[in-house]
Specification:
The complex is a heterodimer of chains A (162) and B (475). Chain A has 162 residues and is α/β, with parallel strands linked by helices. In chain A, 27% of the residues lie in helices and 23% in strands. Chain A has helices spanning 19-28, 46-51, 96-106, 134-138, 140-151; strands at residues 4-9, 30-31, 36-41, 57-64, 73-77, 114-121, 156-157. Chain B has 15 helices and 17 strands. Chain B is globular. Chain B has helices at residues 42-45, 54-58, 66-81, 87-112, 114-119, 130-136, 138-159, 179-213, 215-220, 262-265, 294-300, 307-320, 330-349, 400-418, 425-438; strands at residues 3-7, 17-23, 29-36, 168-169, 172-173, 226-231, 243-247, 253-257, 266-269, 278-283, 286-288, 290-291, 367-375, 378-386, 392-398, 455-461, 464-471. The chains are: A alpha/beta (162), B alpha+beta (475). Chain A binds chain B through residues 42-43, 46-47, 49-50, 84-95, 98, 101-102, 105-107, and chain B through 9, 11-16, 63-64, 107, 111-112, 115, 125-126, 128-131, 134-135, 138-139, 141-142, 145, 148-149, 162-163, 444, 448-453, 472.
């Protein structure tokens, strides 16, 4: 069975940037097989490097701004992940793509064999304390379905809901 | 006719700032202003809050030095309530702090400044970044990033979280340490010390190589100022505690005082061009520009208590003297402090005294609590007035970067005037940004934009744009 790491990224304080956190909470409510790890990271930068353990598949879950209608769920492979331009402005300026490129060079054995992004197109990324936009909240079941399908297994709910 | 040059924003520092240069008719920089664009409202936000929440709330001021705010707020509450915290709590807080210093200094040296060390100044921005660095120096990058992670993990074992810790409370620490945690702290600290010993020589050589390749940096960036930093009972380097020592521009001792007396000597002033206040040291009625930071600490201390760092400190002082006014050299001093933090973490983690009770009752009462800590970027002071119901009625914070603003302005003015007028735009940008970065300012008070922002520099004469240097998103 192939190993999978699902990394959810986001900031729950900032409107649609919180979608990764909300999805993480949903994912954490399931019992996953031992081959699948689900993690939450506030930022997808340097800390991602330490999380990687040479998985067959890395699934990055994040709110995105790619120009689709809000609430669209997009699945992108590694080659299509957008890169941050040039030098980072600060310690925050290192993106997922850069983190994986750095990993490829310093810990080649830890690099995931395949990387997929499950992104939810957001409407608002600059309002503090606002919560998710309606379209983004409504897109969460579809995003969960994509993640489960990519992970290639059916997790069991930890708690029975009525 | 005057010229205004604007650099907005400066990259690879924590937070965002812009630089304004006002030039006279001969093109010489008349005044330089390092401007903080964000308003930090914390001194007002805290009013009316319950005092016992201060360590948790103030940790959120900054994602770069959260542990400094977290611990100094807890120390201020200890002082206000008049309790003596148990020794285990004191040592564990200090160990948490060493983890934070390792994290912060490793990030600053290997991620933010690393590309300058590996590629030199004036390289291609497209490759002069951490990805390019990993390509060229994979082992250095791997060890540097690992060191940062180890610091964060030490911070996490004691603080409960790697960033924004939660465990320091008035009266000590909210938990006692288990044997398993103790063992983990020893492993993390030992690995950190072994890594810094591996990294030290190569990093120092890269730094000295950078100085050799750019002799102007050492020649020009010498702004004589006073310095302030903490020392322990032996006059040694001290991050978590100690008294404040101030030396003048010749290195002569001018004053030693407990942080609770800070308002007798430190004068704050608001300025129109920036949201950060300027700070001066008042000595016998006259105001002196002073600096805090790694370099300031190295100018006030007599030595370092751990053997490896002390040996490197002596090499440093032999070469750069006391006081050393050169902001560029700060990166070297930071490397020595990184060695100290790793050595001290090993000592603390192996002490049997970290086990045992960590908390005494500290009921809130009306009063004033003042405390300080050496944040990675310099002395940080918190000052609170608390009423009889335990509510915060007044809050004042002296942050490292604001104490350095006057010196940053003086350095930019000097550095900009030294740049040849016919230099390329990119070189001018890099040169001035480099000066600002040497001071390692941290403006991460409220918000962060993520990713790279553009730069737009206009040089004007008589209102007309004579030259425009643009890169990034404005291009």
């Amino acid at each position: 069975m192939r190993t999978v790491l699902v990394v959810c990224i986001g900031n729950q304080l900032v409107a649609d940037d919180g979608v990764g956190q909300v999805i993480f909470q949903e994912l954490a409510g399931y019992k996953w097989p031992e081959t699948v790890r689900v993690k939450f990271l506030g930022l997808g930068g340097i800390d991602l490097i330490e999380e990687l353990q040479g998985e067959d598949l890395l699934v990055v879950v994040d709110g995105v701004q790619l120009g689709f209608p809000a609430g669209s769920v997009v699945e992108l492979c590694w080659a299509d992940l957008p890169a941050t331009q040039g030098r980072p402005v600060s310690g925050h300026g290192l993106g997922v793509r850069e983190a994986i490129e750095v990993t490829r060079k310093i810990y080649p054995e830890r690099c995931p064999k395949e990387v997929m992004l499950v992104g939810v197109e957001g409407r608002c990324f600059d309002q503090l304390g606002k919560g998710l936009s309606l379209e983004v909240a409504e897109a969460i079941p579809e995003a969960l379905g994509r993640i489960v399908s990519l992970a290639g297994c059916k997790p069991r709910p930890l708690f029975r809901t009525c | 006719m005057t010229t205004t040059i604007k650099i907005d924003p400066v990259t690879r520092i924590e937070g965002h700032a812009r630089v304004l240069l006002d030039c006279d008719e001969n093109g010489q920089v008349d005044e330089a202003h390092f401007c903080v664009n964000e308003l930090r409202g914390f001194e007002r936000i805290l009013l009316g809050m319950e005092a016992h929440t201060l360590p948790q709330v103030t940790a959120r001021i900054c994602g770069v030095c959260p542990t400094a705010h977290h611990l100094v707020a807890a120390k201020a509450l200890d002082n206000c309530t008049g309790v003596e915290i148990p020794e285990a709590a004191r040592l564990l807080r200090e160990l948490m702090y060493m983890g934070h210093v390792i994290h912060s200094h490793a990030l600053s040296l290997f991620v933010l400044a690393g590309p300058d060390l590996v590629f030199g100044l004036g390289g291609d921005a497209a490759t002069q970044n951490i990805v390019g660095m990993a390509e060229k120096e994979p082992e250095l990058t791997q060890k540097g990033l690992r060191l940062r992670t180890l610091g964060q993990k030490i911070n996490e074992v004691i603080g409960g979280r790697g960033i924004h810790p939660v465990t320091a409370v008035a009266g000590g620490l909210s938990f006692t340490i288990s044997d398993g945690q103790c063992k983990r702290l020893q492993e993390l600290s030992t690995e950190a010390l072994s890594l810094i010993q591996d990294l030290f020589g190569q990093t120092r050589d890269l730094l000295l190589g950078l100085f050799d390749d750019n002799p102007a940096l050492l020649r020009q960036l010498n702004i004589p100022t006073w310095y302030m930093g903490s020392v322990n009972n032996n006059g040694g380097l001290s991050f978590y505690d100690g008294i404040l020592r101030v030396v003048d521009e010749k290195g002569a001792l001018q004053r030693e005082f407990p942080a609770s007396d800070y308002d007798k000597y430190i004068v704050e002033r608001t300025v129109s061009y920036s949201y950060a206040k300027e700070v001066y040291f008042d000595h016998q009625g006259s105001e002196h520009m002073y600096r805090v930071s790694t370099l300031a600490r190295f100018n006030v201390i007599d030595g370092i208590d751990t053997p490896l760092a002390h040996r490197e400190f002596e090499v440093f002082r032999e070469r750069f003297g006391r006081p050393c006014h050169n902001a560029v050299v700060q990166m070297y001093a930071k490397l020595v402090e990184l060695m100290y933090a790793c050595e001290n973490a090993v000592v603390l983690s192996q002490s049997s005294k970290i086990k045992g009770p960590t908390r005494v009752p500290a009921p809130m009462k009306a009063g004033r609590g003042v405390a300080h800590i050496e944040a990675p970027r310099g002395t940080l002071i918190h000052d609170y007035e608390i009423d009889d119901k335990g509510i915060v009625r007044a809050a004042n914070m002296i942050i490292a970067t604001q104490q350095n603003t006057a010196a940053i302005n003086a350095s930019i003015k000097q550095g900009a005037n030294a740049l040849p007028a016919n230099e390329s735009g990119e070189k001018i940008l890099n040169g001035i940004e480099f000066i600002v970065r040497c001071y390692d300012p941290c403006l991460a008070c409220s918000t962060h934009a993520i990713g790279r922002m553009g730069l737009d520099v206009e040089m004007r004469q008589g209102g007309e744009v004579r030259k425009r240097i643009v890169r990034g998103k404005y291009a």
